[in-house]
Amino acid sequence: MQTWKKRSILGACLAVFLGWIVWICVAITNEPAEGADSLTALRDDARTAVQGEDAEHLQRLFDEDSVADDYAETFIDRLKDADALNADLVLEKREKTSYLVVKGNNRDGAAVCTPWMVTTKDSRWYLDGTPPTVGDLCQ
To answer: Is residue 109, in this structure, part of any structural domain at all?
Structure first.
């Protein structure tokens, strides 16, 4: 009887462990992809994230090497602080480089603007949080 109990407990522990491993694998498989499939999809996803104040979604659109883990959350908070009520995202092109620019106005009518360079890696499109050196994107 003792051997049967030990085997049952061991079998239950093994089943729980295997279930946990399967759950982790499924969670990883269902993780949304970083970046976007195309430039247009990147703009649309970023627009949805910014206008919907979805920092988690916006964070996944950035090249992880170009921003801190809380960049999108901080950006959304600052956009709210600026009262940028009508912020929209516009694609701009300078020579061979694309930029996604958040443009809007605050309650007083002052311009609110943040440009991000667009990059590609492994056939995915990303935003780069490093400030661009092109100075006319917010005009």
So the answer is: yes
Helix (H) or strand (E) holding 119: strand 111-121
Dihedral class, residue 33 (left if φ above 0, else alpha if ψ from -120 to 50, else beta): beta
In the chain, the number of structural domains is 2
In angstroms, the CA 139 to CA 103 distance is: 10
> How does DSSP assign 66-116, residue by residue?
TS-TTHHHHHHHHHHHTT-TT-EEEEEEETTEEEEEEEEE-TTS-EEEEEE
Residues 19-78: pLDDT tens digits? Answer: 777 766 665 565 557 899 999 999 999 999 999 999 999 999 999 999 999 999 999 999
